[in-house]
Amino acid sequence: MENKQIEEMNIYEKLQAITSEIGVIEKNLNVEITKTRSYKAVCERDVLDNVKPLEAKYRVYSYPVDRKIIDSDVLVKESEYNGNITKTNTLFMRMEVTYRFVNMDKPDEYVDVKTFGDGLDTGDKAPGKAMTYNSALGMWE
């Protein structure tokens, strides 16, 4: 497709073309739940490496235009070993993020997509995990 044809496309045509060209993104990430249980997932980097060149090709710019924390809590897990009780705190956060996809050839033409993501972490990374899920998977599922 020539640049002139791409420039004349509306935002819906551009998004459809991007979606058509993405294809299947392999699940290259191994997520370990326990030493004996794990599952395969799509990595954010793999999604971005597939999507961003196509956004550039079709002249679409995407960015998070709005973020909201929907829910957050501290989950406490107690475990006992040799009579000793250990408590582990895990931060849970659910976020709503609205991504805007702008037609760079007609900047007043855009589509907003609302996505949701959850993050769990025993440290301070729950917000980042929730955002990663939003950016990687929510936009292009």
Describe this structure in a few short sentences.
32% of the residues lie in helices and 44% in strands. The chain has helices spanning 3-8, 11-22, 44-57, 126-138; strands spanning 29-32, 38-41, 60-81, 84-103, 110-121.
Which characteristics define this entry?
5 strands, 32% helix, three-stranded antiparallel β-sheet, alpha+beta, single chain, elongated, 4 helices, 141 residues
Q: Can you characterise this structure?
A:
This protein has four helices and five strands, in the order ααββαβββα. It is α+β, with helices and mostly antiparallel strands and 141 residues long. The strands form two sheets. The protein has a three-stranded antiparallel sheet. It has a two-stranded antiparallel sheet with strand order 1-2. The chain is elongated and about 75 Å long.
Structural class: alpha+beta
Mean pLDDT: 86
Number of strands: 5
Question: Beta-sheet strand percentage?
Answer: 35-45%
Count of alpha/pi helices: 4
Q: Describe the global form.
A: elongated
Write the layout of secondary structure elements.
Blueprint: H1 3-8, H2 11-22, E1 29-32, E2 38-41, H3 44-57, E3 60-81, E4 84-103, E5 110-121, H4 126-138
Helix pairs in contact: 2-3, 3-4
